[in-house]
Amino acid sequence: MGGCIPSTQDQAILSEGEPSPSAGQESTLAPRKMPKSISVSKQMASIKALKKGSDLEKAMATAALIYRNVSDPDGKLEKATAKNLLQTQFRIFTAKQETKPNYQDILSELDDHTENKLDFEDFMILLLSITLISDLLQEIWSAKTMK
C-alpha cells in the first residue's frame, strides 16, 4: 500500500514542479499545473462599473462573486458547500448561534430544501436570515455613526 507518503518522483514534482529526470514512471498526483483562482478583490477590481460603486454595491458584488466562485457550472451551490461557506466566510455572523432555536430553524430549512442545491436567490436569503438573527447585528446597530 502507498499510504500517505509521496513517492520520490511525487516529492520532486511537489518541490520543483517537474519530475526528476531519473524518475521513470508517470506521477500519480493530480495534474501538475492547476489553474489558480483569482482573488475576489482582483475580480472586483476588474469590474469597471464598481470602481465608483458604493459600499453597498461592492458588498453585494462580493457576495455574488463568492457564490459564483464556489457554485457548479450550472450556477448552483451544493448544500454542503453552503454550510462550509457559513463556517468559513460568515463565521462572525454565525458565532454563538448554534444553540439558538432561530438558527436551528434556518439550518433545518436548509436541510429540508427539496433540491440538493441552492440557487443564488436561496443563498442570499440564507445569508440575510442568519444576519437578522445574529448577535453581530445588534453590535452593528450599536456602532457610533457620529463623532
What does this molecule look like?
- This protein is mainly alpha-helical.
- The protein has eight helices and two strands.
- The radius of gyration is 21 Å and the shape is flat.
- The longest helix is centred in the middle third of the chain and has 16 residues.
Largest sheet: 2 strands, antiparallel
Taking Cα atoms only, what radius of gyration do you get, to the nearest Å? 21 Å
Number of strands: 2
- SS strand fraction: under 5%
Return the string of H and E elements. HHHEHHHEHH
Helix-residue proportion:
40-55%
What general outline do the C-alpha atoms trace?
flat
**CA-to-CA gap between the ends?**
66 Å
What structural class do you assign from the helix and strand content?
A: mainly alpha
Structure annotation, total helices: 8
Average pLDDT reading:
78
List unreliable stretches of 5+ residues. 1-34
**Spatial ordering of strands, largest sheet:** 1-2
Short key terms for the protein model shown above:
147 residues; two-stranded antiparallel sheet; disordered N terminus; 54% helix; 2 strands; 8 helices; mainly alpha; single chain
